[in-house]
Amino acid sequence: MAETTEKLASSKEMDGIRKAAIFMISLGPETSAQIMKQLPDKFIQKVSYEIANIDHVSQKEREDIINEYLEMSQAREYILDGGFDYAKTLLNKALGTQRAKEVIDMLNQIQLRERPFNIARKADPAQLTNLLLGEQPQTVALILCYMQPDKAAQILINFPPEKQSEIAERIGTITSTSPAVIEKIEKVIESKFSTYIENDTENVGGVSTLVEILNQVGRTTEKAIVGELEERQPELAEEVKASLFTFEDIISLQKSDVQKVLREVSNDDLVLALKGVSDELRDFIFDNLSTRAVETLKEDMQFMGPARLSAVEEAQQNVVTVIRRLDEYGEIYIMRGDQDAIIE
């Protein structure tokens, strides 16, 4: 009993980031790298910092954290299979009453539950579209915020143009939603949707969500929606346009289109924009320049020295502005979700 109490106290003192860092160390670099690719950038930064600052991990720490992970994973499967009561019964048999209670309590603390509108995410897009066509724009916007961007795009393009822009505006301006709002909407459509209700405020929507959806709907629909946004909310429209294509996305363009872009970009902007980018992206740019231009660019980059991040980002955005302008005029082609292929 004393050993269990000591173990629990030790576990509580160790925060989640440290646990994650030790768990990654225990898994080894190859497996950890694959897991890290699936994590949010902010979490990757925190875990990476913690890993870098861990000098030593005892065998006991490793074993405790791995065992905790296995227990939590097992408990999660039980909950998803049959709910908390079912999980408690099986965990009591597997771990004993005390440890089962500890695991369930930890699951409650980290709120291990499905996101709202889970059935909507699994539903057939055509059926879901028919269901949502009669709903208010604010209702549709909230539901789309919780859906996969590609499926949300499939649904959005089936709405009339005026409703598309209104729904898009609402998605772009949502920053958070409360359990009461979610519950109210779910009750309105409870005969069609049955999903688990979140009890805590959750960040949904916003510009990033809208951009992910717009990147899937195709250029024609995108232009119509952004055009309406420019009239309704110019600042939101500018933020959306700036996010629709990033500097790193230049690697997705055809070589001939990249060369057109580079002819429009000043050397000063290009030198700054290439500061700190990946070798792959830098080589891609060099491959689309003449040998002499590459040599000049490398010399300028070498003698430039350190540059402020804000200056680099501004230069990259200047390049993106050129790309967006050429795309707008039909001089280059940015691949989007539902556009036809180019015929040579």
UniProtKB/TrEMBL annotation:
Protein's membrane topology: Peripheral membrane protein
Record carries keyword Transmembrane helix: no
Subcellular location: Bacterial flagellum basal body; Cell membrane
Domain (Flagellar motor switch protein FliG N-terminal) ranges: 13-116
Flagellar motor switch protein FliG middle domain residues: 125-197
Family as reported in the entry's similarity comment: Belongs to the FliG family.
Protein name: Flagellar motor switch protein FliG
Organism: Alkalibacterium indicireducens
Gene that produces this protein: fliG
